[in-house]
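Supplementary material to the annual report.
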Amino acid sequence: MNPLIEINHLSTHFHTGSGTVKAVDDVSFRIHPGETVCIVGESGCGKSITAMSIMGLVEGPHGKVVNGSIQFDGKDLLRISKEELRRIRGNDISIIFQEPMSSLNPVITIGKQIMEPLMIHQRLSKKQAYARALELIELVGIPRAEQIAESYPHQLSGGMLQRIMIAIAISCEPKLLIADEPTTALDVTIQAQVLETLRQSKEQSNMSIMLITHDLGVVAEMADYVIVMYAGKIVEEGEVTELFERPKHPYTQGLLRSKPIIGQRTEELFSIPGQVPNPLELTESCYFHDRCDSCMDICRTRQPELKQVSASQRAACWLYEEEAQHE
Amino acid sequence: MSNLSTREAGRVPDRRVSEAPPSLWRQAIQQLSKNKMAMAGFIFVIFMLVACFIGPLFSPYADGKVNILIKHQPPSAKHWLGTDHLGRDVLTRLLQAGRISLTVGLASMALSMTIGTVLGIISGYYRGIVDQLIMRIADLLFTIPGIPILFIMGFLMSEWKVPTDYRLYLVMVMLSLIGWPGVARLVRSQMLTLREREYMQAADVLGLSDRRKLFHHLLPNVFPLLIVIGTLGIGGAILAESALSFFGLGVMPPTPSWGNMIDAANNLIDFEKRPWLWIPPGLAIFATVIAINVFGDGLRDVLDPKKQTSR
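Predicted assembly:
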């Protein structure tokens, strides 16, 4: 099966006054049609910047995609014209942001905001677009669609707004939906509803989802394939069941251990010691070395590469590199 | 009591279902109607508009015929505000002048708002060289005080013998020419913050065209601001027109305007002996501008989100 989108050696750097921050550093992965890929990692590890790079949102004087290619539909998203990118955005690839409250224009009614991409990309008439907007509102599980369509964003709750965002994002039946922490700003009961909405709309149109999250519960529920990022690099990736059962990289192991398990009494929840390294001070090393229990000399001086460690898993860690050497 | 409360409780969700929540505009209008000063201003402005545009139709002197025999008559039952040096009815002229002055005020405001808004949106959204160009032109217009520019342009019009009918329109254009930089600056400053909002990024990733983003997404966000500065701008434009006409550089007689009617105060005899010639237009300017400003202030209170403390 051909991948829907193939990201090769993507690097996005931010040039600041005190140096260059490699927010995304040589990241490669692919997403197949109908697949849900989760990108996990703690704050500042480059998850969101990866998504922004795909959408062409890294711009301005400081940030820049310095290397790599993003193959989508036979085109390199990093090298197509603005006009072509505009036609792909919202139509073939759409994105849901973390904050539903601030992602909708406060002075335009909900209905009009759903209608807009339909009228632009699908060339629907105003009437058709309105009818479709009502359908979409109901599709994401909000009753009284007509009344909602006439409302303004401030009149709805966060959970409803996030579902409206999903409605807008799936309105043109995109091939890829990027969801950047779609449930982080919502409370737990609403989270489940929003995830359910996402899953349903995925099943209906066989779209792929790239889900960015730091919530491993969400990952377990949604993902087919998981990518773990740390300090701008992929440290481990693999099928979700295998990765959850047999995490290879010490960081993934730590992440999974720091999740509370129901029915298991512990005095204190495990946490990975130390802090995320300052991205300005990174030198040639395994970026995780100073927080790692099984740190070796080589970890401090050389960077491990992402290598196949089992049938469906890849990890970037010297532990497995050595095993490979011994054999 | 308990009966009532259960009934109330049962009714609340019902009402929510049947009634759409009030829109932002309706809320603003409701709030505004509670502000007595603003409403008084609003009613006065409406009264002036009605009086000036409809009033002269009922006047027997609306044709403005010159009759030297009845010149300089003090107010009487026949001529409520007396007559001027050509025997014309002052009240009728006052209302006809109001038509011109209010039209000039409204039209030049509308024109300067349009120019200012479009340029402000463009320069705030695109930044860079376009912004530099537009803002430097605005700065240039700012560095020269408004009244001298208007005088120079008024002299030019007189020099080129512009027909009286056209002068009126040229005055509107002149006023908007010096009015737009202020509007453009305000709109631009709003744009600079609005363009960075998350929903604009969201609009970006939906693949909306620039034109759509500018005029469908950003423009509605500055509407409240535009309404407020527009309202206050009318007052300013009326004042500027009056000043210009007072000096004989704006609207030229026989076309009446409040400004050129006060010109009567230029003459010592008229000033001392015939106050009915210049007090009514003076009062009209004063009251209208005050009313517009009070109304504009009230509008600002309800529409400017930064001033909104309690909801």
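DSSP finds twelve helices and no strands in chain B.
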